[in-house]
Design brief:
Elements: H1 5-8, E1 13-19, E2 25-29, H2 39-55, E3 64-69, H3 80-93, E4 98-104, H4 110-117, H5 123-126, E5 129-132, H6 137-146, H7 166-187, H8 215-225, E6 240-241, E7 252-253
Parallel strand pairs: 2-3, 3-4, 4-5
Antiparallel strand pairs: 1-2, 6-7
Domain CRAL-TRIO: 1-164
InterPro entries: CRAL-TRIO_dom, CRAL-TRIO_dom_sf, PI_Transfer_CRAL-TRIO
Protein name: Sec14p-like phosphatidylinositol transfer family protein isoform 5
Length: 254
């Protein structure tokens, strides 16, 4: 935890203290809280959070939920490179670990960005992405069907307004770090005696981390959405995916 402590300070990614109705661990992501320009640091922290989420899954579950809060998100937070590498890590190193990803209240300019980055995702991963809007009853039901609204934080329409506390979160993570070596030894009995908890157990050599910014890709996105106002929201029912975490079939709300 100490090696990625800076990345965790703003609560841009954290494991929630609640689970969904299926008992799945929840990772909350707040891209507007980005506090680093280091792609490597951001990916290392993502991997740390993924490992932590897996350790906290119940015995009958193998998948987690991502809740992505777009409050405060603007075009300066867009990074095609980071999104591409995130997709690479998720699909190549954690296949089938994502049950569903809910994108909550993305702004209108996110639509062309999604068009650019969607091809990075395999079809089965695309089908796990849902768009939900606080002012649209059809998509609000997606959230209500998955979560106990009394426990869900207010940023996603729930009734818990306690917010993110970095000190309490750090304490939880330090306790979890103590459990990680024993967890992976139990998962793989062939491993040697438990070692100190790794900050990042995934080999990042296959991830393109040589530069922290890909101007050419971002320019393509910015040129396609330069006419869009940051303050506008996506039309509530346009292209809303309501596919559950299963790989079998999908349906769209029109």
């Amino acid at each position: 935890m100490e090696e990625v402590a800076h990345e965790a300070e703003t609560g841009k990614i954290y494991r929630s203290n609640y689970v969904d109705k299926h008992g799945r661990t929840v990772l909350v992501m707040r891209p507007s809280c980005q506090n680093s320009k280091s792609t490597k640091g951001q990916i290392r922290y993502l991997v740390y959070c993924m490992e932590n989420a897996i350790v906290n899954l119940p015995p009958d579950q193998e998948q987690m939920v991502w809740l992505i809060d777009f409050n405060g998100f603007n075009m300066s937070h867009i990074s095609v490179k980071l999104t591409r590498e995130t997709a690479h890590v998720l699909q190549d190193h954690y296949p089938e670990r994502l049950g569903v990803a809910i994108l909550y209240n993305p702004p209108k300019f996110f639509e062309p960005f999604w068009t650019v980055v969607k091809p990075f995702l395999e079809a089965k991963t695309q089908n796990k992405v849902k768009f939900a809007y606080s002012d649209d009853l059809n998509t609000k039901k997606i959230v209500e069907d998955l979560f106990d609204m009394e426990k869900l934080e207010s940023a996603f329409g729930g009734n818990d307004d306690s917010g993110f506390d970095v000190n309490k979160y750090a304490e939880r993570m330090r306790e979890d770090d103590k459990r990680i070596p024993a967890f992976w030894t139990r998962e793989n009995p062939q491993l040697a005696a438990p070692q100190p908890a790794p900050t990042c157990s995934v080999d990042l050599s296959s991830v393109n981390l040589n530069s922290d910014f890909d101007a050419s890709d971002n320019d393509k996105v910015h040129s396609s959405l330069s006419h869009v106002s940051d303050s506008e929201g996506l039309p509530p029912n346009k292209g809303v995916l309501v596919t559950e975490g299963s790989d079998n079939g999908s349906r769209e709300v029109h």
